[in-house]
Design goal:
Layout (H helix, E strand, L loop, with lengths): L1 H15 L9 E5 L1 H10 L10 E6 L6 E3 L6 E4 L3 E6 L2 E5 L5 E2 L5 E2 L24 E2 L4 E6 L4 E7 L2 E3 L6 H4 L8 E3 L5 E3 L6 E2 L4 E4 L1 E3 L5 H36 L5
Antiparallel strand pairs: 1-2, 3-17, 4-16, 5-6, 5-12, 7-8, 9-10, 10-11, 12-15, 13-14
Helix pairs in contact: 1-4
Length: 253
């Protein structure tokens, strides 16, 4: 019942964030293989041992939808935008950007978006809507002179270990990226970071979350019914033990 509760919490979090651009659904790894080995060896642990191996994130790309907001960008392919948070540099697929009162390009929480050199991207005050090409180069146009000025290039990085099947099978499972408090991703120590090779920036679009609400609801109902059945089994066992102690064990004269 304990791991079912953990899985239920993960599904509920997925459903709560299904409207957040760039959100990636979470799921739970269970220690099924290790449990089977212990059963065969005779060294089977008691029920108190937590069978949750860890949380993994599905980084499959969500669908892109058009917003016509020139500060909205989406990534078509593997990669992440870099942002500076109070906890350090983190990474996100949520391209819901805007220009703050200091002229910086920032995310929805006000964190600066970083350029290829790891610095803030500044939009000149006389320019309101930049153009961003598929390589992440940001340009603004001087209408008086009819020329474009490059103000920066989005830093787009990737983590090859995310797609390493052998690494995913290791136990205990060690995720390459973990979600921070604000929803962005924090690389774990030793995680190799490279420039994204195949990601294309699409201006005026946002990436939907990859949560399938119908599938998540079916999973939630299935887990709830299974949890309920386990609970009833425990209640029946408790009732049987109660009768054994209080009725069968009584010696009548």
């Amino acid at each position: 019942m304990l791991p079912k509760t953990t899985r239920h919490e993960a599904i509920a979090n997925n459903l709560a964030n299904m409207e957040v651009p760039g959100f990636k659904r979470d799921s739970i790894f269970m220690r099924e293989v290790m449990e089977a080995k212990k059963k065969l060896s005779g060294d089977y642990p008691d029920w108190r041992i937590n069978r949750v191996e860890g949380t993994w994130t599905d980084f499959d790309q969500g669908k892109l939808h058009q917003t016509d907001n020139m500060f909205n960008v989406a990534l078509n392919g593997q990669g992440f935008f870099a942002i500076r948070t109070p906890e350090g540099v983190q990474y996100t697929r949520n391209g819901n950007f805007s220009k703050d009162n200091q002229g910086r390009l920032v995310d929805a929480l006000g964190n600066p978006v970083l350029n290829a050199q790891g610095e803030d991207i500044l939009i000149p005050p006389s320019f309101q809507a930049p153009s961003i090409d598929d390589g992440g180069v940001i340009k603004v146009r001087d209408e008086a002179q009819g020329v474009d000025q490059i103000v920066g290039k989005l830093q787009i990085v990737d983590f090859p270990a995310l797609y390493d099947r052998n690494l995913m099978l290791q136990s205990p499972f060690q995720p390459v990226l973990v979600k921070g408090k604000q929803g962005a991703y924090i690389p774990q120590p030793g995680a190799q970071q490279v420039a994204a090779q195949n990601a294309k920036v699409v201006q005026g679009y946002l990436e939907n979350s990859n949560v399938e609400p119908v599938l998540e609801m079916v999973k939630m109902i299935d887990i709830y019914r299974s949890y309920e059945a386990d609970q009833k089994a425990i209640q029946i066992q408790d009732s049987t033990l109660d009768r054994a102690v209080n009725d069968v064990g009584i010696v009548r004269s």
